Amino acid sequence: MGSRLLALLASLLVALVALALPLAAHASDGVTETPSSSPTPSGAASPGASPSAAPVDPNVTAINVVLRDESNLDDEGNPTPVPSVTLTVTDDGGGDVGEGVTDAQGRAIIAVPAKGTYTVSLDESTLPEGVELDSGARTEIEIAVRLDGPNNFGVFPIGVVSADTASFGDKFGDALVSGVKFGLIVGLAALGLSLIFGATGLSNFAHGELITLGGLLTYVFNQGLGLSVILAGVVATILSGVFGYGQDRLLWRPLRHRGTGVIAMMIVSIGFGLFLRSIYQYLFGGSTRSLSQYTNQERRDFGPVSLADKEIAIILVAVVVIAVTCVAMMRARLGKAMRAVSDNPALSASSGMRVDGVISAAWVLGTALTGLAGVLYAVNSQVNFQMGFKLLLLVFAAVTLGGFGTIWGALFGSMVIGIVVEMGPLFGVPSSIKEVGALVILILILLVRPQGILGRRERIG
Q1: Phi/psi zone of residue 28: left (φ > 0), alpha (ψ -120 to 50 degrees), beta?
Q2: Yes or no: domain 62-162 corresponds to CATH 2.60.40.10
């Protein structure tokens, strides 16, 4: 058991290091944007000061950031600048390097100590009154500083929109569609968690890191190896399934054969999750990065709602995959075998069924579905080493709300969670804590129905 666990950890480290080599060379590709026609800045900002507070020193290496309102055009059709917004620069280690405030032209020049890659973060609380960011806006960009002087440009192409310009009906429709989209992403991960729990009885607290794995692998194959996002996502999903098999074969199966209890295995999953998260942070870094495609897309109106092409693709892919999985679980031999193993592993083994093989299949399918959730989440937003960990509580909430171990319960709970989370800000819930509403509903329902909405005594895989 010990040698197998060491082999698992060693193979994981070797694989991640190998994947991280191209990532390091291309970490900033497709992120830094250099304006084609930018006026020569007339003022430079020292950290924490307005850009017009001091003259430009051409010998001082600096980041030249421009903030534009894409939804508010001037007479010539150009985006208008957004002044008085605070921008903070951090290095690869997450340490603060400097701070600046945009001037009347929406520009901030922030000195940096040396050339390298930096992350520029926008403080939403400093946006002018009556202006807010839409749901697809980026609040962080990476800038590769390679030139001397204030010649390292970065543009925030954020689609800022004036507050209260849309009707409540339009906001409601957009929030509902966003909730369905988010619920489907959570549903894929919840379905994977439910399959693993149904076959093994294990509440896997490392499940969030499996979501992150899908997103990070997509980024590595896209930005690091130059594959298209679609092809990178397919490869990431397949490799996630392979990782699920290796995880079961080298870690969970030996623990089962030793008679390790479910509680002890759950504690092991907590430690395994912490280990994976630390590896991700060490190799990927603490910054948030974007894929090379589908980052900024215009939304098209479809009646009362507006959707970008990538959002339509996310919804269609998730619906098709979930439908195929559910049909397979109900009619295919694998689904029947999983239900049999879930109900009585000893009886299944005595009847000639390969219990370990069925459980490994559940791990492969569950991890592949979870990795696909990470792929779609990366396409929908951005990639970060904590992206799956931030979703873990919502995934568990969805599975618990619908009923642990039931595939239909996991899907129903995910849709409830997704819609409530996205509609929270519409009813006054701050965006920073919009997940609270879903967790409150979870508590209220469990007080009335502890087994969940669709929960029942037997698990169905």
Answers
A1: alpha
A2: yes
DSSP string over 379-410: HHS-B-TTHHHHHHHHHHHHHHHH-TT-HHHH
Global pTM reads: 0.67
Measured CA to CA in angstroms, residue 170 lies from 174, 248, 298, 437 at distances of 6, 47, 17, 21
Please choose, from the candidates 319, 315, 314, 318, the residue with its C-alpha nearest in 3D space to the C-alpha of residue 291. 314
Q: Which residues pair with 107 in a beta bridge?
A: 66
Question: Which run of H or E residues covers position 350?
Answer: helix 345-350
CATH number of 168-448: 1.10.3470
Q: Is 220:22 a contact under the CB 8 Å cutoff?
A: yes
Beta partners for 96?
90
The tens-digit pLDDT sequence of the chain (461 residues) is 444 544 444 454 444 444 443 444 443 343 333 333 333 333 333 333 333 344 556 667 888 888 877 766 666 667 778 888 888 898 877 778 888 888 888 888 888 888 888 888 888 778 886 666 665 566 778 888 877 777 777 777 665 544 455 677 777 888 888 899 999 999 999 999 988 988 888 889 999 999 999 999 999 999 999 999 999 999 999 999 999 999 999 999 999 889 888 899 999 999 999 999 999 999 988 888 888 888 767 778 777 778 888 899 999 999 999 999 988 888 888 777 877 777 677 777 777 778 888 899 999 999 999 999 999 999 988 899 999 998 999 999 898 888 776 778 888 889 999 998 888 888 877 776 788 878 888 888 888 887 777 765 444 44
Question: What does DSSP assign to residue 210?
Answer: H
380: closest CA among 178, 195, 103, 124?
178
Q: How far is CA 201 from the centre of its chain?
A: 26
Strands 107-111 and 62-73: antiparallel
**CA separation for the pair 140, 120 (Å, rounded):** 6
Chain centroid to Cα 237, Å, comes to: 15
Scored b (16 or more CB within 10 A) or e, 283-297 reads: bbbbbbbbbbebbee
Within the chain, which residue ranges are assigned CATH 1.10.3470?
Answer: 168-448
* β-bridge mates for residue 98, sequence order: 89
Tokens of residue 279, six digits: 């590896």
Residue 149 Ramachandran class (φ > 0 left, ψ -120 to 50 alpha, else beta):
left
Q: How far apart are the C-alpha atoms of 202 and 194, rounded to whole Å?
A: 9
Contacts of 210 (CB under 8 A, 6+ apart): 189, 192, 240, 243, 244, 367, 370, 371, 374, 388
